[in-house]
Amino acid sequence: MSIKVVNLTKSYGKQRVLSNINFEIPAGQITGLLGPNGAGKSTLMKIITGYLIPNNGEAKINQISLANNKINAQKTIGYLPEQNPLYDEMYVREYLEFHRNIHQLPSKRIDEVIDITRLEKEAHKKIEQLSKGYKQRVGFAAAIIHEPKVLILDEPTSGFDPKQLVEIRNLIKEISKSTTVLISTHIMQEVEALCERVLIINKGELIADKMMNNFNSYKQQIIEVEFDYRVEKVALEILPNVDNVINTKGFVYEIYFSTEIDMRPKVFDLAHDIGLKIVSLNKVNQSLENYFLELIK
Ligand SMILES: Nc1ncnc2c1ncn2[C@@H]1O[C@H](COP(=O)(O)OP(=O)(O)OP(=O)(O)O)[C@@H](O)[C@H]1O
């Protein structure tokens, strides 16, 4: 199922927190919503899930308007809010039973979600006895119990240790095979690890909408340089952190570096040392981090 957001604007009192947001996420895509603290990510998600009403514009889930047909749209949405609200005094199974009843699902669905979220060993415990990671799994289990076609996850991995982080990310990847997922975060590596596409929001405005294959992996950088004359590839390969050098045309070379440090000054120095002039010098592909930081500067 798709998510469509049209001309969405939201203010809290006099503070405008979303301005004219437009995007469409096709069925089956896993998309990151990236933005600094206070950018408006949670507000946008609350509107997409029908918990908040926008001042202008609308959100649609697979063509169903949340404004006109909220209940039907919500039946197809799973939502894990940032605070992961749980009833701590309930037992895990009891809590999931509560959600199963709301959705009027067969009882075998409880064991299925316990299995998917690897909660078997903790299912007999009270929620208050669980670690943060396992509490989050309970939140996931409740969010997916009705097999939603669209899953909205608001900062689902914040505060986890590295081992739990990997487990939760794997869980999200697994779920995303059958579900359209929108996941908010301010962690770039999260988007790199999970998403096919990234929406960047800052001060309530959508400032970028990119497919992740436009970016280098976290620690890679490609510099395109044109010299005034031919140079042997081996002469460029002596630069530090070089992975590869490709002569793309004429006197133009792409140099692949395995570092986040900006290597353009080193290329300048080398050209000077070997007596070449630089005609042009560009970073071809940026890391998501550099792109993000430049955008929100
Ligand atoms: N219920 C509310 N009433 C008034 N202002 C609010 C309310 N909820 C959020 N805001 C304000 O709206 C702005 C956007 O908040 P929002 O929680 O949507 O941002 P966010 O990108 O999710 O931030 P974070 O990454 O810190 O969770 C902030 O300035 C916040 O203080």
From TrEMBL:
Tell me which positions the record assigns to the signal sequence: none
- Keywords of this entry: ATP-binding, Nucleotide-binding, Transport
Cite the InterPro entries for this sequence: AAA+_ATPase (IPR003593), ABC_transporter-like_ATP-bd (IPR003439), P-loop_NTPase (IPR027417)
Q: SUPFAM superfamilies annotated for this entry? A: P-loop containing nucleoside triphosphate hydrolases (SSF52540)
Q: Which GO terms describe its molecular function?
A: ATP binding; ATP hydrolysis activity
Pfam families referenced in this protein's UniProt entry, alphabetically = ABC_tran
* PROSITE patterns on file: ABC_TRANSPORTER_2
Where's the ABC transporter domain?
3-228
- CDD domains cross-referenced by the UniProt entry: ABC_DR_subfamily_A
Query: Hey, which family's this protein in?
Result: Belongs to the ABC transporter superfamily.
Q: What is this protein called?
A: ATP-binding cassette domain-containing protein
